[in-house]
Amino acid sequence: MDSELRIVEIPPEHQASSTIKGHTDSVDFVRINENASSPQIISASHDGTVKIWDLSRKNELSSILAHQEGVFCCDVSPNGRQIASCSPDQTVALWDISNRNNIARATNHTHKVYFVLFISDSQLLSCGRDRNIFLWDLRNMRAPSKNFATPQSGTFRSVALSPDNSILLATTAESGIEAYEFPSGRPIANQTINYDMRVFPQEKEFLVPPAIIYNARFFRNQRNTFLSSHQDHAVRKFELNNGNLTQISYHRNHWDYVRHVEISSNERFYVSTAQDGSVRVWDAASNTPQLSLIGHTQIVSSAAIARDNRTIVTSSYDQTLKIFTI
């Protein structure tokens, strides 16, 4: 392996405008519900709760004891009325935001469920360590309506749907990116990312593949182009065309695993969060880091960007949420 001195230029620091406390364990995921009467923050924690907060007032509106073994991920339905949550307890749960009632709980996964994603007010995707991607009809969650996985599938960490709803993308813990035609389920691509791993003298260890690809996000105005967050400390941009996955660019500005990437609605910038407690705001055109959002003291697990393209909410293992205005 080659050896090189790794130089990371830290962009200008930017402090959080608010810190939200209330969880008693790591906060694993955050979403923003902008279709409520007043915009809300939805947070999922390893303390087993999903909490709903008022975004402007920063106060807790309600708390749902969602799972017994923690909550890995949550999502909000497009109409803003329901929350989905998933857990290491192998279940997917559906909640009514207005009264916190448990509408349904699916028990068809056979291992940890890492990710949930609404694709409409009546359909939901979930994926996990059992190597399944389930599509759910929310009117009847006794059994999934479809499983997109194949015998060659890896351990799924996240899913994403292209802006025109024609491509389902899945990332795995084995350095894989899988793509399926949606809703037919026909496999389009299954590719393992080949990492060019280098030993950095100032780092104590280097990563040996396979490496987790934590999540992916499509650009809304570029049907086949997406960003992904990687365990080798990088954010990557890919293009998917005719079954071929091409890496367009690759960027490092974190000292540890990149846990999440999120794209602004105007597509002018994106945000990455990392295991080293750092958060970066990147210019989407030049792929250069513009801001370092500071304040978290442990792993920053995820980020959400409001429609105003100025408000960013982050979640962390330090048990807090932070709100940044850029």
Topology:
Layout: E1 13-15, E2 18-21, E3 27-33, E4 40-45, E5 49-54, E6 60-65, E7 73-76, E8 82-86, E9 92-96, E10 102-106, E11 113-118, E12 123-128, E13 133-137, E14 146-147, E15 156-161, E16 167-172, E17 176-181, E18 187-192, E19 213-218, E20 225-230, E21 234-241, E22 244-252, E23 258-263, E24 269-274, E25 279-283, E26 288-294, E27 300-305, E28 311-316, E29 320-325
How many alpha or pi helices? Answer: 0
Number of separate domains: 1
Shape descriptor reads globular
**Based on helices, strands and strand pairing, what is the structural class?**
mainly beta
What's the count of strands? 29
Write out the CATH superfamily name: YVTN repeat-like/Quinoprotein amine dehydrogenase
- Largest β-sheet summary: 5 strands, mixed
- Sequence stretches where pLDDT stays below 50 over 5 or more residues: 1-5, 199-204
Please report the distance between the alpha carbons of the first and last residues: 40 Å
CATH topology-level name: Methylamine Dehydrogenase, Chain H
Helix percentage: under 10%
H/E topology pattern: EEEEEEEEEEEEEEEEEEEEEEEEEEEEE
CATH architecture level-2 label: 7 Propeller
Strand fraction: over 45%
CATH C-level category: Mainly Beta
- What do the pLDDT scores average to? 93
Q: Looking across the biggest beta sheet, what order are the strands in?
A: 1-26-25-24-23
Structural Rg: 19 Å
Pfam families: WD40
Organism: Blepharisma stoltei
WD repeats: 20-63, 64-105, 106-146, 251-292, 293-326
Protein name: WD40 repeat-like protein
